[in-house]
UniProtKB/TrEMBL annotation:
<dbReference type="GO" id="GO:0000166">
    <property type="term" value="F:nucleotide binding"/>
</dbReference>
<dbReference type="InterPro" id="IPR046346">
    <property type="entry name" value="Aminoacid_DH-like_N_sf"/>
</dbReference>
<feature type="binding site">
    <location>
        <position position="78"/>
    </location>
    <ligand>
        <name>substrate</name>
    </ligand>
</feature>
<comment type="similarity">
    <text>Belongs to the Glu/Leu/Phe/Val dehydrogenases family.</text>
</comment>
<dbReference type="InterPro" id="IPR006095">
    <property type="entry name" value="Glu/Leu/Phe/Val/Trp_DH"/>
</dbReference>
<keyword id="KW-0520">NAD</keyword>
<feature type="binding site">
    <location>
        <position position="229"/>
    </location>
    <ligand>
        <name>NAD(+)</name>
    </ligand>
</feature>
<keyword id="KW-0547">Nucleotide-binding</keyword>
<dbReference type="InterPro" id="IPR036291">
    <property type="entry name" value="NAD(P)-bd_dom_sf"/>
</dbReference>
<dbReference type="GO" id="GO:0006538">
    <property type="term" value="P:L-glutamate catabolic process"/>
</dbReference>
<feature type="site" description="Important for catalysis">
    <location>
        <position position="154"/>
    </location>
</feature>
<keyword id="KW-0560">Oxidoreductase</keyword>
<dbReference type="InterPro" id="IPR014362">
    <property type="entry name" value="Glu_DH"/>
</dbReference>
<dbReference type="Pfam" id="PF00208">
    <property type="entry name" value="ELFV_dehydrog"/>
</dbReference>
<dbReference type="InterPro" id="IPR033524">
    <property type="entry name" value="Glu/Leu/Phe/Val_DH_AS"/>
</dbReference>
<feature type="active site" description="Proton donor">
    <location>
        <position position="114"/>
    </location>
</feature>
<dbReference type="Pfam" id="PF02812">
    <property type="entry name" value="ELFV_dehydrog_N"/>
</dbReference>
Amino acid sequence: MNEKLSFVNPTANSPWGTYLSQVDRVVPYLGPLARWVETLKRPKRALIVDVPIEMDNGTIAHFEGYRVQHNMSRGPGKGGVRFHPDVTLEEVMALSAWMTIKTAAVNLPYGGAKGGIRVDPKKLSLQELEKVTRRYTSEIGIIIGPHTDIPAPDVNTNAQIMAWMMDTYSMNVGGTATGVVTGKPLHLGGSLGRVKATGRGVFVTGREAARRLGMDLRGARIAVQGFGNVGSVAAELFVEAGAKIVAVQDHTGTIVNTNGLDLTKLVPISRTDGVVGFKAGGDIVPNEDFWDVACDILIPAALEGQVTAERAKKTTAKLVLEGANGPTVPEADDILAERGVLVVPDVICNAGGVTVSYFEWVQDFSSFFWDEDEINVRLDRIMMNALNQIWDTADKHKIPLRTATYAVACERILMARQERGLYP
Ligand code: GLU
């Protein structure tokens, strides 16, 4: 953690700094609600926890964990938990704030929260992973709950980890509290469609953006950075619509095939060996070359800060779909806008995941489960309604989609803040 960290003084170019500058850009469109904007510039609550576990070799290891509740004006905190060796408090603050904007942008009755553990899960045995998850859950148990703050999967976390979190919380409170986390396995109160929901939302918003740009998806060339749950699912849906995936990058490297990569082979291989395991299906190139590959659509679906000013200058994409949270730094945003590249921002583009998380939570409370068609129809409707409203706002003020999304979302959040009033 940066020693000089304070809520209002971010490290330069950090995710929190990016978020604060995104909030600054929306202030002129908030009218009298601007009076409350400071509330968005600091998290409501941030918890740092020590996560000690006994490793398989008998040593004791300590990991640092976080849960940040950025805003709860509109409902309980909501947001994933990330396991990554580079996680910091400042990063989790930004991720929690983006959840606040995201849940408001699609009008879900939630605030925003996020969690993380500074750990490389690839270096842990399954047993160690379970211990880390359970101890972390127990430590943050003082602030999470089905009506206060509901975690979910994010980078390097999955349904099994959610099952352990649900079980640990339930053991501590007595009973079975399925509604405390979303993204659970199907037979433990999980929802159909949740695993693919984020990628599906990227596709739905991307298809609409392409339509408005007059871009034909048939034959469109797509470059995807990050080939996990978000990037690979979105890529498959775009291929079904006739597009071709010309470049994919993941933590193992970058593979390029200008004729289109065969996803029926690439996806299963990438799960075990990473994308470079599919050498037979394309050329392995240096990672920086990914940004030079000629494409029509760019999907950053990995980590924050990937679309830098330099990369924004060279991409040939006409459309950027932010599958990741915070992939574009503000300077790059300006460059893309000047170059006429349309950016569908993270806070709407990847909102499909939290939307189906909301469906899961509703189903858990009603103990009545919907079929997958019903989930997908409702997901598509919520995403399209939100996107259309954002687009109208962008057209009205002649502002980028990101600022328009913040305008729609911040109005909802700050209106709730104002109506609730300050306590005491
Ligand atoms: N981690 C996902 C996100 O960044 C989903 C969060 C959730 O389902 O609560 O939106």
